[in-house]
């Protein structure tokens, strides 16, 4: 679909341009600072994500899709024997590389909507990526994940819930059923990107229809996380 392809191209351009300021979102700096109480709630829920990932124990050969600046790559390294980290942004990959500085991580720059896994992995992990997959490509994305897994392989995912205070103060979400959003950079440049919000029940139902067993939960207001396996 033309509009879908345009959104994906603009999304890739956005995350390349945003790489240097991406971490401000996660660490609640600048435009993403919503005050002491809101920031504390965010940080507490982010800590829950890290704890859940550590309990999952992503051992073996791990594939990280949309690895970004390495906010979770560094946590994967606590258990993984090796990581193949894929992202469309060379700028984000360079930040990730500098953050992790670990020979166990192999980096690949690729558009995930066109990429084919070269091998199979014990674990597939992605954070804040599923919401950037257009609904029309949801099934194809999960087929890519299935093809990436070795027999008995596992998946762990993290994403955002619909919460207006999760984003920058000068961003406006369009509602929980919207499928795209307008994003601004610090320099005022504007981009339209894919943004599909999920709730656990809906996501588990969609995964079940594709042959996945899943357990999905929320941290409260800001994040969704969980794990799944092929049936």
Q: How would the blueprint of this fold be written?
A:
Layout: H1 2-18, H2 22-26, H3 36-56, E1 60-65, H4 73-76, E2 80-87, H5 90-100, E3 105-109, E4 121-127, H6 138-148, E5 149-160, E6 180-184, E7 190-194, H7 200-209, E8 212-218, E9 223-230
Parallel strand pairs: 1-2, 1-4, 2-3, 4-5
Antiparallel strand pairs: 5-9, 6-7, 8-9
Task: State the gist of this model.
This protein is an alpha/beta fold and 231 residues long. It contains seven helices and nine strands; from the N terminus they run H-H-H-E-H-E-H-E-E-H-E-E-E-H-E-E. The mean pLDDT is 97.
Characterization of the model:
By secondary structure, the protein is α/β, with parallel strands linked by helices. It has one domain: Vaccinia Virus protein VP39 (Rossmann fold). Helices cover 34% and strands 27% of the residues. It is built from 7 helices and 9 strands; from the N terminus they run αααβαβαββαβββαββ. It has helices at residues 2-18, 22-26, 36-56, 73-76, 90-100, 138-148, 200-209, and strands at 60-65, 80-87, 105-109, 121-127, 149-160, 180-184, 190-194, 212-218, 223-230. It has a 7-stranded mixed β-sheet with strand order 3-2-1-4-5-9-8, sandwiched between helices. Strands 6-7 form a two-stranded antiparallel sheet. The longest helix is centred in the N-terminal third of the chain and has 21 residues, at 36-56. The chain starts with a helix and ends with a strand. The model has no long low-confidence stretch (mean pLDDT 97).
